[in-house]
Amino acid sequence: MIFIGKYNKSVILTYVGITIALTGIIFSFLGNVSNAMICLVFSGICDLFDGKIARACKRDEDEKEFGKQLDSLADVFLFLGQPCAIGINLLLDLPWICYLFLALYTISGVIRLAWFNMISSKDEPVKYFTGVPVAYIALFLPIVYTLELIFRFNFSIIYLLIYIVFSFLFIFNIKIAKPKGMWYVFFFVLAIIVTIIIKVVG
């Protein structure tokens, strides 16, 4: 084998999500928050279905372990790094010290992912999450941004509160049921609706 890693169809959607997230970060640096939010939404969609696709594929133990590690590392990029890049634009009207809360958000998210990896290393199936999953920001933040576009009001303080609240929810010892069945359809449809509104109104 010439290259290390796995490149089969079980992980392809994760790679697509990473590419979309990178695009979102670039849009953030360019000040295009609307397109950055849309990238965040589609990153969330990729994360929503990559696990189901992976489980539907025939994988050996190495491929399963690689997929788990890849997914966790991708989450850092998709749902911690990307939202922070967007947050730099969202918090422009606030004092620079507020950006320390982006650091808190990132650290809390990493702690939550590390804890999840430790728990999921056991052979027991995951039926619930401990702490709010970092991927939830990919739906919640764009929804609030959509409301800001509709009402034409400055939501800077609200965005700051979102980052602070999620920082604690990531590490709060609360059990969250893992979505299944129709919840996947609901999240997908909601994500598409939010994307359309952002494109039309933004």
Total number of domains: 1
As a percent range, the share of helical residues equals: over 70%
Distance between the termini: 47 Å
Low-pLDDT stretches are none
Shape: globular
* Topology, number of strands: 2
CATH class: Mainly Alpha
The succession of helices and strands, N to C, reads HHHHEHHEH
Radius of gyration, in Å, reads 17 Å
As a percent range, the share of strand residues is under 5%
Number of helices: 7
**What structural class should be given to the helix and strand makeup?**
mainly alpha
The CATH topology is Four Helix Bundle (Hemerythrin (Met), subunit A)
Oligomer: single chain
Strand order of the largest sheet: 1-2
Main sheet attributes: strand count, strand direction, barrel closure: 2 strands, antiparallel
Overall average residue pLDDT: 90
**Can you name the CATH architecture?**
Up-down Bundle
Folded structure, characterized:
With 202 residues, this protein is mostly helical. Helices cover 71% and strands 3% of the residues. The protein contains 7 helices and 2 strands. It has a two-stranded antiparallel sheet. The chain is globular and about 50 Å long. The model has no long low-confidence stretch (mean pLDDT 90).
Quickly describe the structure.
This protein has a single domain (12-201), classed as Four Helix Bundle (Hemerythrin (Met), subunit A) (Up-down Bundle). Helix content is 71%, strand content 3%.
